[in-house]
Sequence to fold (433 residues):
Amino acid sequence: MTSKHPTTRRNFLATGAAAGCGLGLPQLAGADDKVKGKLTKGTAEHVISIWLGGGMSQADTFDPKRKGDPKKKLAGSYYESIATAVPGVRVCEHLPKLAPLMDRVTAVRSVHHEVIDEHAAATNRMHTGRPISGTITYPSLGSIIAHERGAAAAGAPAYVLIGYPNVTRGPGFLGTRDSYLYLTDTSRGPAGLTRPDGITPQQQSQREALLAVLKRNADPTADQRLLDYDAAIEQSLKLSGPDFMSVFQLDREPAELRSRYGGEFGQRCLLSRRLIERGVRFIEVSHNLNFLNGIGWDVHNEGILNQHKLIQELDSALTSLLMDLEEKRMLDKTLIVITTEFGRPPEFDSGGGRGHQGTAFSCVLAGGGLSHCGAWGETDEIAKKSVANPVSVPDFFATICAAVGIDYHKNLYDGDRPVPVTDMGQPIGKLLA
Fold:
């Protein structure tokens, strides 16, 4: 890790981490900011956001409780828990590789919203920070960060999505310029940057020359939508060259490292490291495509039987990403975020699985130069509701924005309509101290 958290201090820091983060001490997420009236800013330069589509169970991962029993309908965790590098902070037994690294991590255990039974609405909430509106299309967090910070290097896109695209992850009213470049398969680069079969380099050059002629002869325009579209085409032509496209050649990485990351999800995490090295600012890595249990993280009924395979895959990939970034001295500059649309109730359904729960669930922050403490916030004895340090979705978004140096108090504008960046969220001050 970089000099901010040298190894010689790690045990000392871990010992006082739980107290330092205020576990069990009721406090508003942004109390320090509200009292002092100051703007908190971190030093992270990049964000790797890992999306666990379907709804990760907090009690079965980062907020373990007493052991439950689906046959007896006894509410509780599905697995045993294990100790971590942070005294008093425990995680699920299927996170053994991550447990020794939890001093670089904070599981925010008290995230909440009111969306329960609608996956699409909850997914939108956890990408835009707001309820769905009939009058405005809000931008995603990735597009907000792309808009505010831009790419970290010339010749790189600001925002890359590794997963299926949709409006929830898009730029909303910010427009095309702040949208994403996406791919769904790590075995090749983005389809949008790949020349169609049958189009030779000579034909491509002719097409580009014709496009240039059309642009020169076109009437000038002040329409921002058309200007953004032209800018997107220009950037795409640049990105389709060999310089940027080489970032997708994962076979350039050592075989041992690729093996350590694991399957397709792990390769997505490895690619995300290569992308930030190239200058991408924000990357979303989706983990809801590789359904090892048939239904992903949406573990109703018998879907819970192989939930541990998903957790183990997350454990291997996340740990490899953390150590890889640390070895390359990039961890303090890279904020890793794990989100999901909602959590799961501690009670078991009729098939032995779990339903949906938005009242209290876990999201995770790692690296990014934050003052990590293993866990922030506290839920009751079965992870049903928050009992200390509740964190709203806007507060969680404000923490991410603050970590990458974005003014979370400012307004964006949909025409002349002001829209707060984080819906008035306040960051978790202790993590940015």
Summary: The chain has twelve helices and 15 strands.
